[in-house]
Amino acid sequence: MPELPEVETIARAMREGGRGAPPVVGHRIKDVELLWKRTLDTPGPRSFKRRIIGQRIEDVGRRAKYLQFKLSEDTMLVHLRMTGDLLVGSGRKPLGKHPRMVFYLDKNKQLSFNDARKFGRIWLLEDDSMVLGKLGPEPLDSSLTAAKFYKNLKERKRQLKPLLLDQNFIAGLGNIYIDEALNLAKIHPTTQANLLNEKQAQALLKAIRKVLKEAIRRNGASIDWAYRGGDFQNDFRVYQQTGEPCQHCGTPIDRIVVGQRGTHLCTHCQVPLTA
DNA sequence: CACGAGACCTGTTCGC
DNA sequence: TGCGAACAGGTCTCGT
To answer: How far apart are CA A146 and CA A170, in angstroms?
Structure first.
């Protein structure tokens, strides 16, 4: 489900409450239950349990699509992958339809990691750079200037769509927001990165930021049963709009496959670039 | 380095 | 209606 805006929304809910649940920051972890073994990446189950019990959740942040739980001693990273979600409530009965790991907190609270497809992963680390170290820049961080983004694009020959999906090139984007940003910038998804001129690179970065900021403002996009809470899905220009008229020119939105991912675009507004 | 295929998984929707 | 195929927000690994 979740790309940067959805993960950001969840991180905020963990800190301040939201999505119909109270915050978890300030609570202490009293017990953990692992219901699907592979959900836990690092360390092993015994060590994980021994280390995490007793730690207090000091803060929750986000890097790329990872949630960072800053605990008293360690950092716990949670990656939701396709269908993961975090639910907060009370009692001992695991919340949600597909609980994979459940944290029992003080004051009878619980945090339940739900994940239908079991792709999600959790790490407990002294130093989270072990996992986050190679990630590319945050798209909303001002240290990623238009000039730097242009330079980075110039050094790559890959098609834009798979390149923007590469978390080591730029962090946090996924299938939805890439399709939306490329449409907004009027750039074809199969364009070779190094063929963009400076103006187009600038337009692309601007479009990425606009789409992400608007989505965060709307608390992300709710699609199907995986993630709920946001309503940016009502603003999709191309994603899952196959056959619908382009808002700009009326041409029916097309769906193609690029790098094995479904890709939505307006073939009139987004014309392939040739060298 | 770029690219494609296959894995990891389950649930929903589509086509016949 | 029923049933298999296709598809899904992500990422890793392997082979060419």
So the answer is: 13
Give pLDDT tens digits for A201-216: 999 999 999 999 999 9
pLDDT over threshold 70, residue A256: yes
The tokens describing A90, both together, are 């009370």
- Structure tokens of A260? 């094995």
Positive or negative, the Cα torsion across A79, A83, A86, A92?
Answer: negative
Q: What is the distance in angstroms measured between the alpha-carbon CA of A44 and the sugar C1' of C1? A: 48
Residue corresponding to tokens 């074809």 = A188
List bases in chain C with any atom under 7 Å of a protein Cβ.
Answer: 7-12
Q: For strand B, which nucleotides have at least one atom less than 7 Å from a protein CB?
A: 1-6, 8-13
Question: Quick check: is A186 catalytic?
Answer: no
- Dihedral of CA atoms A184, A164, A38, A24 in degrees, nearest 10, equals -50
pLDDT of residue A273: 76
Secondary-structure percent of chain A, ordered helix, strand, coil, rounded to 5: 30, 25, 45
Kindly report whether the global pTM for this prediction surpasses the value 0.70. yes
CA distances from A84 to A31, A132, A210, A255 (A): 21, 19, 25, 26
Q: pLDDT for A48-91, tens place per residue?
A: 999 999 999 999 999 999 999 999 999 999 999 999 999 999 99
Instruction: Provide Rg for chain A, Cα atoms.
Output: 20
Residue nearest to nucleotide C12 (CA to C1'): A119
pLDDT at A275: 57
Q: Which of A19, A65, A121, A218 is catalytic?
A: A65
Kindly report the backbone phi and psi dihedral angles of residue A208, in degrees, each rounded to the nearest multiple of 5, phi listed first.
Answer: -55, -45
Phi, psi of A231 (to 5 degrees): -140, 25
Question: Is A2 a known active-site residue?
Answer: yes
Q: Does the pLDDT of residue A269 top 60, yes or no?
A: yes
